[in-house]
Amino acid sequence: MPDMFCDSEFAPAPRVDAEGLSRAAGADACRSTSKAALTDLLWLSVERGMAVATKELLFRGAQANGLSGWELRPLHVAGSPEVAALLLDFGADPAATEEEEGGTCLHTAAGHNSAGVVRELLSRGALATWTDRRERTPLHWAAESNACAAIQAILEASSECIDARDAAGQTALAVALVRGQVDGAEALLQAGADPLALDRCSRRAVHPQLWAAVLEARHQLKLQSRLPLLLWRQAVLAARAETPHATDLHSTPPASSPPSSSDAASR
């Protein structure tokens, strides 16, 4: 059983076996001095947020910027702010991109709703305006995943990207709404995202008449934080205008129906 894990307090030997960490890196990878094997082990410890093991592996030569067998860099799967900080201390590049979509570690942390990691990265030089291959910012990734804590963490650091557009001209708010991520949409709206921003096909995130109905309903019901309910109310959606600029939001309500407007008024 690898003495590396015992020395670094990664886990007792039986637990290492049970988690399959040595098998994941190869039959005898834990005793190997191969930097590739060490990097695979580093990826596993980083993903689990194990700071002591991460530090030990880095001291033993694991590459903070190395690609694992899964074509990911350790910083892209950082499971805690502590391991993210260690990787940065050992020279990990926060601007390095992953292979599939070209996202940075800030993109992946935002998509996983890892708000603590997001804050650590932003405090250490990562930029909220970085984009992937589709020109999407970390805020787009957070919006797509309904990652409200990450949305808040990004916008606390900078509001510069709140209405940034991707290659299709969509803002993070538009992405959230098309995906039906109403909690994320509410967080963005409350932070000041523009609901009437046009994409490259002249479509708006929210139809102007729908948005007017939402604002009126919120005023009448004296609700300040119930936008998910109001955005998806059947009565509001049924009142949409027939225009060529209607988006999926207007024709595809979520599978589960929200409470009725009469229920909302009684609360």
From TrEMBL:
Matches recorded under SUPFAM superfamilies: Ankyrin repeat
Signal peptide segment: none
Annotated spans, Disordered: 243-267
Pfam families (alphabetical): Ank_2
Alphabetical keyword list: ANK repeat, Repeat
Biased composition (Low complexity): 251-267
ANK repeat residue numbers: 101-133, 168-200
PROSITE patterns in UniProt: ANK_REP_REGION (PS50297), ANK_REPEAT (PS50088)
Matches recorded under InterPro entries: Ankyrin_rpt, Ankyrin_rpt-contain_sf, Multifunctional_regulatory
Source taxon at top rank: Eukaryota
Name used for this protein in its record: Uncharacterized protein
